[in-house]
Amino acid sequence: MAAAEVARQGEGCRTVPLSGHVGFDSLPDQLVNKSVNHGFCFNILCVGETGLGKSTLMDTLFNTKFEGDPASHSQPGVQLKSSTYDLQESNVNLKLTIVSTVGFGDQINKEDSYKPIVEFIDAQFEAYLQEELKIKRVLHNYHDTRIHACLYFIAPTGHSLKSLDLVTMKKLDSKVNIIPIIAKSDAISKSELTKFKIKITSELVSNGVQIYQFPTDDESVAEINGTMNSELPGLWGLSRPEFDQGNFAGLENLYPNTDIIRNAHLPFAVIGSTEELKIGNKMMKARQYPWGTVQVENEAHCDFVKLREMLIRVNMEDLREQTHTRHYELYRRCKLEEMGFKDTDPDSKPFSLQETYEAKRNEFLGELQKKEEAMRQMFVQRVKEKEAELKEAEKELHEKFDRLKKLHQDEKKKLEDKKKSLDDEVNAFKQRKTAAELLQSQAQQAGGSQTLKRDKERKNNPWLCTE
Question: For residue 165, with 0-12 CB atoms within 10 Å meaning exposed, 13-18 middle and 19 or more buried, which class applies?
C-alpha cells in the first residue's frame, strides 16, 4: 500500500540524469588536478670539480640550454651559485633550481671545501623551518629551496675516490640524497669502468657513506628500481672489515657471483653533450671523436638514459618526499632539541608545549639577566679602571705642569739676570763713550788754541818760516 502511494506520487516528477560518476574514488583525480594547477618544484645540487661537465649534463638532462658562463680554476674558495628556471612539459609546470659548486676542488688546501656546501643546505632547511614556525604560514605558496637531489660528479680516474670526495660525501649523506655519477665516462675503457664502479662501491661502503637507494616498496617501480640499486644486499649502512680502503677484493670474496657486482648501475657512468649529430636517419645527441662517435642516449655507451629515467621519470617525487620526511625532519628534530623541546619528559609523559615554552622563556630570561648583570659589572669595572687612568693622567699632567712652571721661572730669572748684566754693560759703555767724547772735545779745543797762537806769532813775526 505504501509502495503504491510512493509510485503514484513519483509519476509527475522529472528524472535528472547523472553528469558523471559519483563516488570518493575521484579523490586521486582531484589531487592530480590540484597538483598540476599548482605546479611542482625540484632542486638539484651539482657537486664536483671544475671541468667535469656539470652544466653540460644539466643541459642534456632537461634538453634545455641553461644560462651560465664557464667557471675558472682561480676561485679563492668554494661558492654556490643558484639559478631557478620555469620549465613546462605538456601541461605540467616545473620550477627547477640548479645549484652549482663553483671552485670546488681548485684550492691547494681542500680541507674545508665541504663547509660552504653544508652551510648552504642547512640554510635552506632553516628558511623552511622559520616559515613553518610562523604564526601565519603560507607554505602552499612558499618557494621550497631545499635540495632534493645531489648529483656528485666523480672524476674518471679509474683508480679510486679522492679523499676530498669521500670527506664531502660523508658530510652530506645525512643532509641530502646523494646520487654518485662518474662524469665523462668515455675517458676510460669499459673494463676499467667496471672495475672503477666496484672500487667506488667498496670505498663508499667501507667508509660508511650512505647514498640514495631507489625505493622498492612500491610494486609499480620495484622491479626497475631494484635493478638500478647496487645489488649487494646488506652492504649499505654496515661496516665490514673485508672492505679495506683501496682494495675491493673483499666484495668479490663476500659475493662470489661477480656478475651481480658488475651488473650494478650505481654509480652511473654518464656522458653529456648538447651537440646533435646525424646518425643513420636520426639526429641524436652525441660526441664526435677522431676514432668514432659516442651516443649519449645509447645505453651501450653510457648510463645517461638510466640516470634520466631514475632521476626524472620514476623517482623525482620520492626524492622530494625523502628530503622532507628524512633529511629535513632530522634537521628539524636536532634544531628543536637544541632549543629544549622534547616529546616526552623523563617520566615518559607527553610534554606540554606551553610548559616547555614557559620553561625555556624563564631560562632565557635568567640567562639574559645574568648576562645583563655581568655586563653591568664589567661596565662598572671599566668605569673604575677608566677613572683610575684619568686620575693618573691628571696627576702626571699636574706634575708636568709644575716642572714646566719651575723651568719657566728659572728661565725667566736667568733672562732677568742676563738683562741686568746687559743693562750694566750698556751703562758702562755709555759712560766710557761720554768720557771719550769729552776727551776728544778737549783735545780739539787744545789743538785749536795752539793753531791760533801760531797764527798770531806768524803775524807778529813775518820772518818765521813755515812749511
Answer: buried
Element (DSSP H or E) covering residue 330: helix 329-338
User: CA-CA-CA-CA torsion for 170, 173, 175, 179, nearest 10 degrees?
Assistant: 130
Q: How far apart are CA 130 and CA 132, in angstroms?
A: 5
* Residues 100, 110: Cα–Cα separation, whole Å: 17
Residues 6 or more apart whose Cβ sits within 8 Å of residue 408: none
pLDDT higher than threshold 50 for residue 394:
yes
Mean pLDDT, the chain, integer: 82
Enumerate residues 6+ apart whose C-beta is below 8 A from 147. Answer: 43, 44, 45, 99, 121, 124, 175, 176, 323
Instruction: Please check whether residue 54 is in contact with residue 100, taking contact to mean a CB–CB distance below 8 angstroms.
Output: yes
Residues in the chain: 467
Q: 3-class DSSP state for residue 385?
A: helix
Rounded Cα distance, 430 and 440, in Å: 15
Q: Tell me the three cell numbers of residue 140.
A: 602552499
Residue for grid cell 613546462: 88
Where in 135-291 does DSSP place strands (E)?
A: 149-154, 178-182, 268-269, 276-279, 282-289
pLDDT of residue 251: 46
Any bridge partners for residue 282, and if so which? 279
- Residue 201 predicted with pLDDT over 60: yes
| Amino acid at the residue 162 | K
Q: Is the pTM of this model over 0.85?
A: no
- Which residues have CB under 8 Å from 170's CB, separation 6+? 207, 208, 209
